[in-house]
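Journal club prep, shared notes

We agreed each person brings one worked example of a sequence with its structure written out as tokens. Mine is MOSC domain-containing protein. I'm keeping it raw so we can talk through how to read the token line rather than staring at a rendered picture. Sequence first:
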Amino acid sequence: MTWQVEALCAGRKQSFRGDSLSAIAKLALDGPVAITKLGLAGDEQADPVHHGGPDMAVHLYPLDHHAFWREQIGDHELLGNPGAFGSNLAVHGISEGDVLLGSRYRLGSALIEACQPRQPCWKIEHRFGTKGMVASILASGRCGWFCRVIDEGTAQAGDTLSLEEEGLPGWTMARLFEALWGTSEPTDPALLRAIADLPPLADKLRGKIMARLDA
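Then the structure, token by token:
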């Protein structure tokens, strides 16, 4: 399966709320972009404790979700920006239900691997100036996901994102997100333990799950 990359996006740290900084405002980049183990060249993270690192190197938030948000919050000007939700990749036609944990994708000359869904935080609501967006993400599962970089390379808008290797059968980003943070089912400790045992899972998320089980 192959999808076209509409844009690659990166952001710089800037004032966000009070004294806090954020790089959630991602803008489309021109020309070839280097993709390293730590992400796209020029992309920054203001909070390295919760963002960035090898298992959060590349964030994909599906462009198709922007239509959902227009129905929810109206035609907000930020929804015309492919990096509105802090996404590094702007792609149509792919969603959380399509992506398996551990699936590998060729992005230009780089190879990336899906390793965790994204947990939403308050910064999305502050960026859009709209309350209730986190609750909508938790209820709808429109979370996006992170990839680690297996092979470094370069990519640019117009390149393709191509599935090279399927991940773990049944373990979609949608299923993982629902089990960890969703609202439709009670937390299932056995399911959480099974998720923590999945080899491709991001190590930091694995640690958070184990801490949650041991609490």
